[in-house]
Amino acid sequence: MDYLIFIVSLAALIYGAEIIIHQSEKIALRFGISEYIIGATLIAFGTSLPEMAASVSASLHNKAELSVSNIIGSNIINITLVIGTVLLISKKVRPHRDFFAKDSSWALFPVLIFIIITLDNEITRFSGIALLFLMFGYILFLLNHSEDTADLGLDEDLEEIKKDFNIPKTILLLGVGFITVVYGADFTINSASNIARSFHVSEWIIGVVLVAFGTSLPELIVSIMAARKNKADMAIGNVIGSNMANISVALGTAAIANPIHLDFTKYSFDIATLVAATLMLVFITANKMYSKPAGISLFILLAIFAQHTAHQLS
Description:
globular, two-stranded antiparallel sheet, 2 strands, A middle domain of Talin 1, mainly alpha
């Protein structure tokens, strides 16, 4: 029964996030907010909403392993699976934006800060607030560099969206979306915890694999759709923004809700994999290696990560 609850609640979590993304986009367009700002903020936040809801719910239930592993696994999957898939299925990837000069540091900073704040095996409320300020700095950076960014490729029929805008309906749907996300996250965490116990494995393993993969589906779907439309800026930018939001907003909010105490040295391989994946992303953007071999190299890292996780399960 826990397996069914997990699948249904995870689907509800993702569906609720999709409702919130779509309705937030409508509100932004209705009040004249630019497409770029919508893409850089709402899409990044929206696709990270499942991770945030799951991590906060886990933190409130004193399930520290699920709270952190979900974010670690999700960021690894975002880089290796999502960007790897984009590079493999795209005919030609030529981003207009220089991601190395403008964005790579924002992919690396949160990871380095995460390592620093976990050296004492605790993420305090103060650390959580500091992580939120990091996201605030990223948003200010995006606003100051919006003029040199290509269209991120949101809904093409923007005038139709504006015409159909209905405030009561939008507010109602936002309420439905948030309720779905909150309860979906709650049931996802509880069922994931039960599944871990039934398999006699740690909640960390369930979080870093099952929950992380499920909560990464929005990023995967958005990026694949962008890649098929030759919108490489959106696909790569979505992952960088989402990974930034995962650590700064999701983990920061979870720590503020309930300080996280965990022996992080036990999970050094997974954290090292996150660092390796992030460095590979920086290397790819620095050398503009938006090619199939680069995509394959990301999949090789994913395979190593999967093999290590499978070994822990055996």
